[in-house]
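Regression report. Comparing outputs from two consecutive submissions.

Submission 1:
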Amino acid sequence: AAVRKAFSEVDAAHASPAVDLTDVWLTAKAELKKFPEGHVAHGLLKELIQQTAPAVNVADDPIHAFARSLGMGAPGPTREVIPKTLTFTDANDLRSWTYQWKTQGLSAKGDRAAGTGRYMGKLVDNAIDEAGRTASPEAREALQVARDLTKESATTYNRKVIRRLLHDPNLPAAKVVETFIKPDRFEDLPPFK
């Protein structure tokens, strides 16, 4: 919640969607070919492609269309491709979603969906950073705060450790509580905001 709020501060400083996802879309289309239909990564990449696809505006001059209907040579319709852009908050949500990709029952080491998710997440990270470089100074500063908070949160709440603990059948719940809850160490806990 704190990270999302920090990214909403970036959006407040830069009102219009700025994160261009063209590279993410193009790469997702290329990556899709590497996975057979039915593979977890295939389905996730298809969804990512839908979320990042550019819009296409087709415009046709009525006079040209009429001339073509009479068999006269006239230029055809024009196509304008408009890149998909998201707000910083929505782009960060998309990034977070890609980093969560996984195949049930596989370890992270052998999971191609997880590897692809990390790769696509990094591309979204790059798009966010690129948009940040062209944003206003206030938006750049807010983006740096949001990025720092993201890194701090990832370090503080290491997901791999939590996942390992949750899926270890040999680890009693009391041991988890004993490991994470230290009554004499409350000062080490980060404050809630």
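Submission 2:
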Amino acid sequence: AVALAELERFVVEAPGHDASRAFALAFIAGRLEGREGLLAVERVALHLGADEEAVILALAHALHLSPHPGLGALLERWLRHHEPGLRVVALRVLGGRKALSEQALGRALEDPEARVVAAALGAGMLGPPTHTVQLRGAILQHEKSEDAALRQAVLWALAVGGLAGADEQLLAAARAGDELALLPLALVADED
């Protein structure tokens, strides 16, 4: 408990928001028994600002590697958290572990925050084929989004998600001048 408190202090008292320290805490705390480690991760995430992409990425990578038996419950709680960054972390980890339920995916695809929807698209395309119907609906809903990150997530979901007609949609987007479609299109074209 003392070591965990010192590690948390090390992260919180660092000058600036150091995502590498967040990774270190989450990586270590995700291996400790009991709830305290995961609660420390949550406190640090909120302190550092779970809306910063570097912090989100660090936490997602560290927690993806965590063997903690309570991690699933924490991530399920984060899926409903008021802080969008924690919802993004939860989606990335659950998606990477192929543990995102259809119900959670559906809620995330309807989230008012574009970055949460983008994360849900990424998580959904890694999931089972039963996610395809929800993904297709979200792709149609957001394919013309003004948010570049969301539109890019849509294009990657088309490329990687194994959806029928994806190559035609990507080609049409590229021909219409959408530069974000070029790399996903290259991936699809390379598969042919």
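Expected: both submissions complete independently.
Actual: both completed, but the second showed a warning that disappeared on reload.
Relevant detail on submission 2: The longest helix spans residues 36-48.
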